[in-house]
Structures are given as structure tokens and as C-alpha cells.
Amino acid sequence: MPESSPSANLAPALSLQLRHVARCVRAVEQGQSLSDLLPQVPAGLRPGVQALAFHVLRHLGQARALVAALAERRPDAAALALLHSAVALLLAEEGASPAYTAHTVVNQAVDAAKQDRATQRAAGFINACLRRFLREQPALMAEVQALPPARWNHPLWWIQRLQQDHPGHWQAILEANNRPGPMCLRVNRRRTDPVRYQAALQAQGVGSRTVGEDGLVLDSAQPVERLPGFAQGDCSVQDAAAQLAAGLVLDRPGAERSRRVLDACAAPGGKTAHLLERADLDLLALDVDPRRCERIHDNLRRLGLAATVKAADAARVADWWDGRPFDAILLDAPCTASGIVRRHPDVRWLRRAADVDQLVAIQRSLLEALWPLLRPGGRLVYATCSVFRAEGSEQVAAFLARHTDAQLAPSPGHLLPGNAGAPKEFTDNVPGGYDGFFYACLDKRAP
């Protein structure tokens, strides 16, 4: 669902929305994904709650530090989440005015506290903290700016890893993470082309720019229901960085086009669909979660495409492989999702430093399991939506050291959010820049 501004959908009372936002924030801090939480919000409230929750999560580091400075005692988790949410709403986006007046936020936050049994007793405490913040805001803001998690709205371990991995670009990455990414479409070349679809958008007053071979970056985000031909499969929502995968798998200079293809971690099916939009393939799409496999089926049906979809662990080859080698394999491996924080602002608060090593081990096991399934002369494209080198360049360097029959072909490597440090060929015509991604093209030498 495209993100809307915090001022959109004002029909429900802000106090009611704040109650849901605070519950989402509390659940995120307890380890639940916002993508799982939002469907539980009543449909009429969901757009406003999503917009407000995104804003709060983008400012949560600063809000936490401010509340710690404001509160002489730490309230219980429910009251703390509401207080974090209210303080974050008092913080404007860079270059923008706050969505609500300060006194509106304070009054509605207190009302929200009174309306919920979990926070009723803390209403006076929340009121006192917020009014003190309004009185002392300049001094408090200056105080917390010295704290890196407040300055950058990311956990300290995340900031330190970026400083190590991207010493010349870590600040630009963090700044990009705190801005919404542009809405990007992938045009279904089996039904239309970017130029014709751009004209259809323009006829509805929606401006766009072409990107890559099949993409359009919209001047402003739109509900998918307003996109011409969306229900009929004319286009899909997919970031420009994710759209690179299909070409890397299929378009190999000097090589026959791949026909038998494995998409090893396929859900929700965006890259699977793009491969099928570009070529007639014998394609097997795997995902370990049967419910996520249903999303693959749903996406393929809307686009008029077909593939073999199996619910299976790609690393347990004996459970699903028929013994026939693949011409190409796309391994979009499980990762920290550290490159897509601008679209999923909860990710930074869900992840822990230890997660990186655990995911690196999973990625390595998948590479080891799938490499023998690739025919000599074939290609495995390893991808993650991560900016951490452990999940990208370091993972691939270790793989190449273990496999003398693997050769690294020209590859995008690390693409950083907002195009920090990206080569020119990956930045043209992408207003707002790519999401963070890593790609490595691993070709298997013939005996």
C-alpha cells in the first residue's frame, strides 16, 4: 500500500489513531513486524495509522532519548509506547511543518491515554511530560543530538556497522533511510510498454519518469486502485533496484538465454513475475512458507503468468529437486533487509546485531546447497536487500574462495539507499534513488 502523508485521512479522531499507533509501536519493540500488525487495524483507520506509524518509527530513536530525558520514572510499556508516539508526532520531517499543532497532539495523546485501560492511570503523567517537552524543546533537542541513536534514528550497533562497511557514505545511507522512497512501477511487457503506460498515467494526471528497461518512477505515490490497468496486470509495484534481477539472470552476453530457471526464495513473487514477463521459461519458484506461496500464486494470476510453485526449504534439496540441472538460479536470500528501511521503517528496530551472523550462515548454506544444481556454463545470481557487507561482498568473496569453478561476472555489487556512492549507470532517472541492494552474478565454469 503506498504511503500517505500523516495529515491524510483525518476523519477518525487523532486520539483513536494514536491508540492503534502506540499498540503497533509497542509490538514492534517486542519483535513483531509492522507488516503483520497493520492488517489487524480496522480498515477505515489503517491508512492513517500506517502513515502515523511510519512517521513515529522514523523518529523513534530521537523520541526514546527525549522521553528518557523527560521522564523521572520509566512508565510501563503501554504508556511508554504512547508517549514515544506522541513525542515523535511533535517532531517534523526535515523541511516540513508538523502534521498537527503541538497542542492538538498533546490533547489527543492525553485523550488516547484516558480511553485505554492499559494507559488510563498514566494520562496525567503523559500530559506532564508532553507539556514539559513543549516548554523545554530547544534545550532537550540539543541535549539528545549528542546521542547517535537520537541523531540518526537507528540503533547504535547499526550505525557502527555502517561506519565500518561504508566509511564514506554511512551518513548518506542513514539520511536516505529516514526519507520515504519513491513509488516505482514495473510495466508488464507482455501487455504494454513503459512509454504507452506512461502516457496512460499522464492522462490521469500522474507524472513519471522511465527507469531501466521496464520501470517508471512516479512523481507522487498513488493507491494501486488508481493505476490504470493494475487489476488486469498492466503493472506491478517494485523498486528499481529489485527490477535489476531479471536482466542479470536472463541477459548474459555471449550466452544462450536461460530456459530452466529456479527462483529459490521467491515470495511474494515480484522477481518471479518479472522473469516470466521477460521470457518463456520453465520456472520453479520456491518458498519455505506455504502462506507466502499463496501470494506468489495471487501475483502470477493477476499478471496472467504461470510457474511451478512449491512450498519447500531451498536448502533441503532432496525434498524438492527432480535431478535436472538449472540453466540459471536466482537466490534472493533471507537477509536483514537493511537496504529497504525507508519502505519498512520498523526493520531497524526489529533487528539485533546477532541477527547478521545468523543470516550470513543461512545465506551460506543456501549457496552451498544450490550451486551443485546449476549446470556448467549456467549462472547463479545472488541477491540480498541488505547494505551490510557481511551479507554481500564478504559473503561472495568467501564463496569464490571455496569454489574454484565459480567466476564473478560483472555485477552491480552494493547499491546504497538514495544512490550514495553508486556508479552513474545505476543512478540515472531514479529520483530518490534505489533501495539498498546487493547483486553478484556467479557463472559456473564448464569442465
How would you sum up this structure, described in words?
The chain is α/β, with parallel strands linked by helices. The protein has 3 domains: 14-153, N-utilizing Substance Protein B Homolog, Chain A; 184-237, Alpha-Beta Plaits; 252-444, 3-Layer(aba) Sandwich (Rossmann fold), CATH 3.40.50.150. It contains 17 helices and 11 strands. It has helices at residues 14-29, 34-37, 46-58, 60-70, 77-89, 102-115, 123-144, 148-152, 156-165, 170-177, 194-203, 244-250, 270-278, 290-303, 347-350, 353-370, 393-402, and strands at residues 184-187, 208-211, 215-218, 235-237, 260-263, 282-287, 308-311, 326-332, 374-384, 406-415, 437-444. The strands form 2 sheets. A 7-stranded mixed beta sheet has the order 7-6-5-8-9-11-10, with helices on both faces. A 4-stranded antiparallel beta sheet has the order 2-3-1-4, covered by helices on one side. Strand 5, helix 13 (270-278) and strand 6 (282-287) form a beta-alpha-beta unit. Helix 6 packs across helix 7. The radius of gyration is 23 Å and the shape is globular. The N and C termini lie far apart (48 Å).
Specify the overall morphology.
globular
Radius of gyration: 23 Å
CATH level 4 superfamily of the largest domain: Vaccinia Virus protein VP39
Task: Please name the CATH topology of the largest domain.
Answer: Rossmann fold
Characterize the quaternary organization of these chains: single chain
Note poorly predicted spans: 1-10
Share in helix: 40-55%
Largest sheet: 7 strands, mixed
Strand % is 5-15%
User: What is the terminal separation in angstroms?
Assistant: 48 Å
Task: Let me know the average pLDDT.
Answer: 92
What structural class do you assign from the helix and strand content? alpha/beta
Q: What is the annotated CATH architecture of the largest domain?
A: 3-Layer(aba) Sandwich
- The count of DSSP E runs of length 2 or more, i.e. the number of strands, is 11
Helix and strand run: HHHHHHHHHHEHEEEHEHEHEEHHEHEE
